[in-house]
Here is the input.
Amino acid sequence: MVIEPALKRTSISYPTTPSELIDHAIEYSKTIKLPIDISVIHWTISRRATKRAACCKFSPGSPDILISLTWKAFQAYGWEKFKSIIRHELIHVWEYQTYGSTSHGSLFKEKAQQLDAPLHCDAFCSPRFYLICKNKDCQWKTIRHRASKTVTHPFHFYRCRKCGSPYTVEHVGTSIRWNTHLEYRRARKKIGIHW
Ligand SMILES: [Zn+2]
Ligand SMILES: [Zn+2]
Here is the structure.
């Protein structure tokens, strides 16, 4: 006969401070069934008032990932619901580590359903675009969050900040690239709802 060990804690502990929220998030992320390397995740708390519950930031050329958790969102949602936000962010980590980019596309949706995570984060703030210098000796690469003119009008008006060569723009979610405004317009059409 197997005797179940008695529960050590009679009540479940919930985070009450930002540092406890980080500790809980780290422990919780270890329990999620996703083949991800959580050792490269850096966790931080955002105290600024914002509509974002959390967000993931990826740095080009580095495996490091920053997940920022919004303290006010946690206070509004409570730990149980906030865990689903953490699952959402970890799906981004999984997609990024597995495929090199992440979006809210079909792969994401499938995993989100499996893990019962929300499909949308209010503002997904991982970079949307890379600007990549075409001069192979230069290695200049930078990110853009918005479709500014450097994104929509490469070549015509803008050059690599480091060496002055033309650069390629890459849409992070789909990996579609363009070099000119005309190519951008074609790409924009192709990307469609995944823009
Ligand atoms: Zn998201
Ligand atoms: Zn360059």
